[in-house]
Amino acid sequence: MKNFKVILIVLFLFYMGDRVFSKILFSSLKYSSLPIAELYFGKGKADILIIGNSRAYRHFDEKLLSNELNKKVRVLAMQGASFEFLNILIFDYINIYGFPEKILIEVSCLSSGNDQIQNNRFMYHKSEGIRNMLKLNYKRDYIIGKLSNLFFLNTSEFLNAFHKIFVNYIQPPLFGEVSKNEIQDFMNKKYKPYFLIKNNNYIKFNNLNEKLKNDVQIISLISPTSKAIIERQVEMIPFIKRIKSVSHQNFYDFSDTFDDYRFFSDLLHLNEEGRDAFTKKIISKLFK
Amino acid sequence: MEFTSLTFLFFIILFFFSYQIIKDEYKKVLCLVSSYIFYATWDWRFLFLLILSSLIDFFISLKIEKSEDKKFLVSLSVILNLLILGVFKYFNFFSESFSKLLTIFSLNYDPIYLSIILPLAISFYTFQSMGYTIDVYKGKLKPEKNFLTFLTFISFFPQLIAGPIMRGKKMLPQIESLTKIKAANLILGLELIIIGFFLKLCIADRIGIYVEEPFNNPQNFGGAVLLISSFFFSFQIYADFGGYSLIAIGLARVIGIKLIKNFTQPYFAHSMRSFWTKWHISLSGWLKDYLYIPLGGNKKGKLSTFRNIMIVMILGGLWHGASVNFIIWGFFHSFLIITENIIRPKKPFPVSISIFYVFSMTSLAWIFFRAKDLDTAYIFFTKIFSIDSYWLNFSFDLFNFLISSIFICIFIILDIFEVKKNKLKKKTRTFLRIIQITILLWLISFLGVFKGSNFIYFQF
Fold this sequence. Notes:
The complex is a heterodimer. Chain A is built from 15 helices and five strands. Chain A is α/β, with parallel strands linked by helices. Chain A has a single domain (17-287), classed as 3-Layer(aba) Sandwich (Rossmann fold), CATH 3.40.50.1110. In chain A, helix 4 (62-69) runs parallel beside helix 15 (272-287). Chain A is globular and about 75 Å long. Chain A starts with a helix and ends with a helix. Chain B is mainly alpha-helical. Chain B has two domains: 6-167, no CATH class; 184-459, no CATH class. Chain B has helices at 6-21, 24-43, 47-66, 70-104, 122-138, 147-155, 157-160, 168-176, 183-207, 209-216, 223-254, 272-278, 281-292, 302-320, 324-342, 351-370, 374-385, 398-420, 426-447. Chain B is globular. The interface between A and B is medium-sized, with 22 and 21 residues.
């Protein structure tokens, strides 16, 4: 009997501490400067939202855009984020702050999977969309998280957000240039299509364009990719065709903007120099 | 089936549940069947090898009891076991080494390679099985007559994959007398399992990121980072292997089987010699009893003692894997132990200095153990010991580095608590144990790395 009392005490303490600590830790994110934390804690209002996966995260200089346009620009992009997930962020944004002036969508995220939902599960408390998507895609995580709320916070993105309580968030550029070997390796090996639209993403993209067409200006675009990718990819044409069909003429193809490899950190991502050049190009082409 | 996987969780719950409800006489059968299922989930083909190894030692040990020529039979067992190990683990290594040796004498020989993968746990169960037969030969143990008991002893799943390597004398009677799960054992077992999981998920796997990259590409890092990552590897391997051992001991303890402790705060050792009485105790004990002492131990003069230490440590290194790195690792340890034997200061060094010395030396030795080849180890050593402007180039992310460092501090505190807890009053001890387990559960839930990475020692 005494032994089982010990188990009960441990379980009770675990449960109480789990709830209290997870609440404290999660609440502390209101002081975080990470975009996703600011979005859900009332500090994420912007005139222009930029949405996408790593290619949006690395290709748009939020600070430069804000300064040049004299508007608040927010890059709400994440590495590997799918459009299905980003769609939740857009509607959560609208629910909290109302409609932004413009939404720029870097459409490569239509080919991304839903892995990022796992990494952002700590926003479970704040977003019904995230909660539902987690329940649907990662049932196991959802159940464990229900048992221990601390588990919801056990992600690198939460730690990143927590870190940004103490250190100000700066959108990090990529450095270095893509190497000749990397290009050669890519040209030699079998081509793995990158721009393949995932159906769930496409449906959400379509819905978003339809729902918001009268309220927000939605601009879809493909940011620059390296020459090597452009030369080898065959799926880009149908990819663009499908996106154009739902974009209400607001689609821009920047994929072949840079011929020079010096703008690229790897075959799919611009480096700091490329990011600056591309951001300036966007300003002149889309906003002036 | 990984200990850290959800499948294992279902497996173990089902096992404990079935164990509790079936009659005592069937518990052994359940243990055996579960062990074979557990092993077969890794690779069912090697199950036959495990059974073969068990059969060899079961029948030879029975023969030894009645035979006049006991020496021949024990030699036969040792040869057959080493043959299994030799073919599956060392053949390619020796074939290649032989070819390299011949090139020194300008002879050409194309090494023959066997395209076989290393059977999981082979080093552990062959040593356990071989140790049993030697014990029977020495008369320390009566041969086990019950075939089922013996098979369970060799394949008992909590300790099958990476030990602790058990002795028949301690293990066989426990398998014979399996009874229902007792509450006290359940609590102690669960406590050990939780500590083990904490060591694995929060320490070994979290600090692993500071080990992986520097050991894969040491040329990209400065000396300071390489030195830190070698220190981190010391903690990683201890947390990983120590964590596994605690989980194994805990699982066995739930059903009342007491496995031996494999680690007793090795990094608090004051000398290299004492380090080896605290690190991987079941293997070092095995090597001492079945190799060092039969070689003459320390009874035949200094030179012979040094030779024996060297043989034991080098073979101990080779036991871990067929690679020159492991041989050098073993040799390095034997060199340190022998040096300690030769140079004995009249006044012992302060404890803190001795502990720092042992930790530093073992960390340097681990470089050979962890590096994928000798070239990598060479880059490590040259970069650590050649201090230049790049030496201090610190390329780790500070925030995550800080978290990992905090975990290492918790790890050290856990070890200190383990040493001190027996001196506390029972009430205080129980209170602190409850607090300890609760905190560890929070930490596992919040910061455990659930990526299903393998335990390091599973490869041996």
